[in-house]
Task: inverse folding
């Protein structure tokens, strides 16, 4: 998953991203006796399919693709809860999402539980976002089938904050 997709998922889920870091894919491993070609294939996959460590006001959330599911781990946050009745691998601090849409669904459920704990500051608001960030917001929402009219003002403000920070280089902590 690329950085824009990551930020879009968290934005649509309503979870503020304070900072984020790209991590090597935590699922891919090499085994003794593998050919150089297999090792190279694994290395390319690792690079193209990173995991992410996301800092939120409530703690760290780690996520990334694990074969055909997105592994989401919120064990560093205060929430200990099963997020869905869906028949997926899950516990009180992690869940496997079958695709980005389900990742948004599960993170939104987590976000509601986190919000009940109390949100932290979110200094950049929609009106502060540069025009380029506002255009990127509209494009990203459109790619997920959303329009600004389908979001609450809080969701729009948060999305704008993420995009404004990204445009200003505030949230991007890796290269």
Result:
């Amino acid at each position: 998953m690329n950085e824009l997709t990551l930020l879009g998922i968290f934005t649509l889920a309503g979870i503020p991203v304070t900072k984020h870091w790209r991590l090597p894919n935590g699922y891919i491993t090499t085994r003794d006796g593998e050919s150089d070609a297999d090792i190279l294939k694994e290395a390319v996959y690792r690079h193209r399919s990173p995991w992410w460590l996301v800092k939120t006001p409530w703690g760290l959330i780690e996520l990334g693709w694990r074969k055909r599911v997105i592994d989401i781990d919120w064990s560093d946050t205060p929430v200990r809860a099963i997020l869905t009745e869906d028949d997926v691998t899950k516990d009180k601090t992690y869940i496997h999402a079958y695709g980005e849409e389900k990742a948004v669904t599960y993170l939104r459920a987590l976000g509601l539980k986190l919000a009940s704990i109390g949100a932290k500051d979110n200094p950049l608001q929609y009106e502060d976002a540069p025009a380029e960030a506002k255009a990127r917001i509209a494009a990203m929402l459109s790619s997920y089938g959303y329009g600004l009219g389908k979001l609450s003002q809080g969701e729009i403000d948060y999305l704008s904050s993420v995009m404004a920070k990204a445009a200003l280089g505030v949230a991007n902590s890796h290269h």
The first helix runs from residue 3 to 13. Confidence is low (pLDDT under 50) at residues 119-126, 168-175.
